Amino acid sequence: MLIRTQGALDRVSEIAVWVAGAALLMTAFMVGLEVIMRKLFNSSLGGADEISGYVFAAATAWSYAAVIRRKGNVRIDVVYNLMPRPLRIALDILSFLALGALFALIGWYGFELVKGTVETGRISVTPL
């Protein structure tokens, strides 16, 4: 059961990486088109910079699962691989707990931001 679950997670994260990569390529094309339109036609698509920020954030988040599954995150592997297995396991658990705490903190403040925005009726002043 666990192997099937891990396989499913690998497939989902692989798809997410490809979708995120395609989204980044499309965003790069859109920003390039925006630059050309501004230079040659003195016109703009409007919101390309904002969209590129959203796509970058989503692509980063979607790709993170694949990086974790492949153990592709940046760390000092030379020292890590020389450590005894129990210490590596303890450090892996500690890193996942720290990551979970960071996500919880970001989630908490994100929820508070949305809650405050809904309560006060504020809206964004962006073109989108």
**Helix-strand makeup class:** mainly alpha
Q: Roughly what is the average pLDDT, rounded to an integer? A: 87
Major β-sheet profile: none
Total helical elements: 4
Rg on CA atoms, Å: 20 Å
> Helix and strand succession?
HHHH
Helix content: over 70%
Shape call = extended
Beta content = under 5%
For the record, give the distance between the C-alpha atoms at the N and C termini, rounded to a whole number: 45 Å
- Describe the oligomeric state of these chains in a short phrase: single chain
Uncertain runs are none
Q: In total, how many beta strands?
A: 0
Give the total of domains. 2
Please provide a written account of the structure.
This protein has about 130 residues and is mainly α. The protein folds into two domains: about 1-75; about 75-128. The chain contains four helices and no strands. Helix 1 (about 1-40) packs antiparallel against helix 2 (about 50-70). The longest helix is centred in the N-terminal third of the chain and has 40 residues, at about 1-40. The protein is extended.
